[in-house]
Amino acid sequence: MKKGYLLFLSVMMFLLVITGCSTTDQSKKPAEEKQAAPEEKVELTISAAASLQDALTEITANFNHEHSNMKINYNYGASGALQQQISQGAPVDLFFSAAEDKFQQLVAEDLIDKKNGMNLVGNELVLVVPKDSAKGIKTFEDLPKADKISIGTPESVPAGKYGKEVLGNLNIWGTVEGKIVYAKDVRQVLTYVETGNVDAGMVYKTDALTSKKVEIAATASELTHTPIIYPVGVITASSHQKEAMLFYDYLQTKAAMDVFEKYGFKGL
Predict the structure, then answer these.
(1) Which of 177, 179, 208 is nearest to 194 (CA)?
(2) pLDDT tens digits, residue range 142-179?
């Protein structure tokens, strides 16, 4: 009788232990499932100056190694045109401009909060010619030798505005104005020079360094044009403020700045 009672107690204890373990396992499952749930996919749209394309492609690839849930789509173009698109309501999360005045216009319109924007990098303006050129253009003062010269449209392309300033301050503009072929952005200027459609063009140093078909004839003195500064900021109406700020902060890291410098940009 005593042995039977002890056997009964042993069986009951064993069943209690099994039941307890099962309950514990079940209680863990929701937490484990929650933890294993994939991060929500988020897409950002960034409007950026055309001259930033190569650097941002590499920076974005590096960023995505750490944030695979985020996809970044770029709208590249002339800063003035991009600024107008944003002013007219284009759905954009960040604006990366090649000119302070275009950026400040959006700040003035309350489309960018000043505290969520900064001047990030700088650039230089250079005169480029085709590698096989026989025109003998070595300096800005040699530009009257050219039949055609390309710059970006000054009203919408910052590099074009800087270029016009340089030619004006060197007292060359009046001589070459009739030879100017305007382009929608600096990449188009570069293409015109590469293909020999023009004898010379004015682009950013960063653009010139990407091409094996042109050579830099001269670099404009900083005293001849407005400082070339690239501001970046988060658009106030962005529907992904948290993620936009995450990428905005990443652009300021040493890893990102090293890439900018690799492509010829200058730290400020």
Answers:
(1) 208
(2) 999 999 999 999 999 999 999 999 999 999 999 999 99
Between the CA of residue 57 and those of 47, 143, 180, 263, what are the distances in Å?
A: 13, 34, 31, 11
How, if at all, do strands 180-183 and 112-122 pair?
unpaired
Q: Is-contact 100 161, C-beta < 8 A? A: no
Q: With residue 126 as reference, give the H or E element that holds it.
A: strand 125-130
Residues facing residue 119 across a β-bridge: 231
Please state, as a whole number, how many other Cβ atoms lie within 10 Å of the Cβ of residue 71: 13
Q: What is the pTM of this model?
A: 0.79
> What pLDDT, on a 0 to 100 scale, did the predictor assign at position 190?
97
Angle of helix 254-262 relative to helix 53-66, nearest 10 degrees, comes to 150
Give the three-state DSSP class for 64: helix
CA 136 to chain centroid, in Å, comes to 36
Which residue, among 221, 232, 206, has the nearest Cα to 102 in the 3D structure? Answer: 232
3-state secondary structure of 45: strand
Residue 21's pLDDT band (cuts 50, 70, 90): very low
